[in-house]
Structure formats: structure tokens, C-alpha cells
Amino acid sequence: MKILIINGPNLNMLGIREPDIYGKEDYNSLCKMIKDYADKKGIEVKIYQSNHEGDIVDEIQNAYRRFDGIVINPAAYTHTSVAILDALKAVNIPTVEVHISDVTSREDYRQISFVRKICIKTIQGHGFKGYLEALDLLSETIK
Ligand code: DQA
Known about the structure:
Blueprint: E1 2-7, H1 19-22, H2 27-41, E2 44-49, H3 53-62, E3 69-73, H4 82-91, E4 95-99, E5 121-124, H5 129-142
Parallel strand pairs: 1-2, 1-3, 3-4, 4-5
Helix pairs in contact: 3-4
1,3,4-trihydroxy-5-OXO-cyclohexanecarboxylic acid binds near residues 76, 99, 100 and 101.
């Protein structure tokens, strides 16, 4: 099973960026945690991060017929991007939305998620562990 993990803008700044909200661990620790967990479960993962909306759209399109599932944290693009929603609809690959923080308890402008409509589940507020829960869910769903 091949899963693509996509992280949107500013997630490369984890550890530096608002540690009270996102924690003190950096982006490399997140990647290592995901890779170690995937290895244990026998899941092949590619982890991709970009600060650019169009690059994320390209990555989703390239996943067509190459990946069995997608875990996406579109970060700020969650709340703005119809383009990312449309790309996910186009490839029609089972997708789980993840947010490190609990977005529902944050600012009004974070209450909309465009991608949520196409995702099988949203996992939020569970910190880095949310990505591992998303892998569990996809591996159960896809089989
Ligand atoms: C985030 C929440 C978003 O609102 C924010 O723009 C992010 C990170 C999260 O993981 O909690 O960049 O997606």
C-alpha cells in the first residue's frame, strides 16, 4: 500500500512557528515519526511539503494511479483552496484531512474547510499523532 502525505504552507516551520499551538518538535521529527510508523505497518509513504498551492495541485494530480491513499494537511489552504479540493476530486483517491491543532476551537476564518467535503475523515487537535491515526484509518479502509 502506497500513501502520499501532503503538508501545506508553513508546516516546514514546525518547532519555530507558534510552539504553543503546534508544539516544539520540528518538521523532521514529524517526518521521522510518520516514516517509522509506516515502516512498522508495512506501508510505503512519500512525504511532500510545499508552500505553493499550484505545486500541491501538481503533486495530487501526479498521485493518480500511483498512490492508494492520501493524508493531507493543507494548512492555511484548507480555508481558501477550491483548487486543492478540485484536484482531490479529480484523482478520487481515499483521503484523510489532518490538522495538528484543533481548528474548530480557533479563529472564525479557520472554520471553513474546502477539502473536508471530499475526505473520508478529518482528524484535528491530536498533534503529530493525528497523522498516524490517518495512516491507520486509510490502511483499514483500503485493504
Ligand atoms: C493547521 C491549521 C491551519 O488553520 C493553519 O493555517 C496551519 C496548520 C494545523 O495543522 O493545525 O497552518 O492546518
